Amino acid sequence: MEQLDKILNKALQDSSPLDREELGFLLDITDPGQLQKLYRAAYQMKERYIGRRVSLRGLIEISDYCVKDCLYCGIRKSNANVPRFAMTKAEILQAAELGREYGYSSLVLQSGERSDPAFVDFVEDAVRSIREIGDFGITLSCGEQTRETYQRWFDAGAHRYLLRIESSDREFYGTLHPADSLHDWDKRRHCLDLIRETGYQLGTGVMSGLPGQKTSHLVSDLEFFREVDADMIGMGPYLPHHETPMGKLITSFDPEKALETGLKMIAVTRLFLRDVNIASTTALQALSPADGRERGLLAGANVIMPNIGDIAYRRGYQLYENKPNIDENRLETRRKLEESIHAIGETIIHGWGDSPHFAAKQK
Ligand code: 5AD
Asked: What is the end-to-end Cα distance of the chain in Å, rounded?
């Protein structure tokens, strides 16, 4: 316990960052009492830099077509069992309107990766059109693109961009992806520079609990976040998907442990990076539907991205199936989320919720 107290005190009181050994020590904690101490310290850091506040963003998954074949991912190109969809612009705008109704002034547009001209044009047009109907903050999460594309999307009105590095370790990254030029770590790393140089607030992140992943990899991930000077971090536990090459090899999966590792990564990131935005991601919710995201907040996260897009997309099908209660269900879901946020003593922020880390750099 003594070592833990020493490290947490250093994190909270000292201005010098934790070193690799200290970060690794925190990530290796398994004792429930020690875990609580870690989460509480991270929460204290969040209170200091962010307050007891959470930003909600409306997440719109605009398309699941993807040119990539990442070995862990359910929407990889080679998975023929995924129904592929692409929202129309009208559906995206409808989702944005829904977001506005819900009080989300910040939207995230996420998609599988494509870089063909039609897709680039489509995203540019969608971003511009959203900006025309309201003063929305717009985050994009549409993969690796050229400098020109990032610039066009920025000029259209997007101002934050999320691109997870997935793993900061080039060699380990190689075990998660096909060995070809489409899945090149250095190219992905370079994209983070392009995103930053274009003027976006930069978001990145990794998955935790991947097969073969060691604490030292995760420690390197934390150092990587600092090195690229990330403004936002989106991380989540790896969840096996049975229609992927990686998922097929998984024989046992411990959801509790996966959740714990995900929460530890959030907490240690908060202690290490202090003033960045950290998302409590859907993967946490998937592992613990009742309270996964709330536990993320209590471990130091300050952003939640409720999905608002699928409803606009599914509406076509749902109407066909004659289920007029989807909207009611949505309201119900949102009310529950807001209630559970208030129940842990947090306030919902209704502005864009930009990263304080980014704001501090502009001064
Ligand atoms: N489990 C958890 N996260 C995953 N992602 C992709 N596949 C999985 C999976 N099986 C994450 C990746 C990607 C983000 C959109 O989703 O980190 O960047």
From this structure: 40
